[in-house]
């Protein structure tokens, strides 16, 4: 288990073998950077999205950010690694700056969120094979699938539940 503690400024510090992360509750002033990370991450991992649909989602993301417990994750160099959004026991969003994908940050963030917030559910774009594989590898299993997303767009959604 990775220890974590609250620092003076309310940040959560996670110390693993190599990765140290600080978790801070996001504010509206973080939104421009969060949106930049969201777009860069989606462009890197969601090759199946049409450009017009990406722009559609980009327009509605700010409202989605307002409706979740939004956390900004920074590394030991105070560089923003990514962000996550939680609603009760569901991880609604987890996006990493592309330069940090594949380095263990996602695993550390997910592990911490599961422990701290008892995350039990995640929805993932079925066509985002890398993300789907990531969650399956990290103790989630397929519960059900929908042929379209919540907006009726032709992007199947896989509903995952924690298997442990």
From TrEMBL:
InterPro entries linked to this entry: Acyl_CoA_acyltransferase, GNAT_dom
Any matching Pfam family: Acetyltransf_7
E.C. code: 2.3.1.-
A GO MF label: acyltransferase activity, transferring groups other than amino-acyl groups
Protein name: GNAT family N-acetyltransferase
Lineage, highest ranks first: Bacteria, Bacillati, Bacillota, Bacilli, Lactobacillales
N-acetyltransferase domain boundaries: 21-164
Superkingdom per UniProt: Bacteria
Keyword vocabulary terms for this entry: Acyltransferase, Transferase
């Amino acid at each position: 288990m990775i220890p974590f503690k609250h620092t003076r400024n309310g940040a959560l510090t996670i110390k693993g073998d190599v990765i140290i992360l600080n978790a801070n509750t996001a504010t509206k002033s973080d939104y421009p950077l969060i949106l930049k990370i969201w777009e860069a991450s989606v462009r890197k991992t969601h090759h199946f999205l049409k450009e017009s649909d990406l722009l559609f989602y980009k327009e509605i993301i700010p409202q989605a950010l307002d409706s979740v417990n939004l956390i900004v994750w920074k590394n030991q160099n105070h560089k923003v690694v990514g962000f996550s959004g939680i609603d009760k026991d569901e991880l609604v969003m987890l996006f990493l700056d592309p330069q940090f994908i594949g380095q263990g940050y996602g695993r550390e963030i997910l592990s911490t969120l599961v422990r701290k917030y008892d995350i039990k559910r995640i929805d993932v774009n079925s066509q985002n094979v890398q993300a789907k594989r990531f969650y399956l590898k990290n103790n989630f299993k397929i519960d059900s699938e929908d042929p379209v997303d919540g907006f009726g767009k032709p992007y199947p959604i896989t509903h995952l539940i924690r298997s442990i």
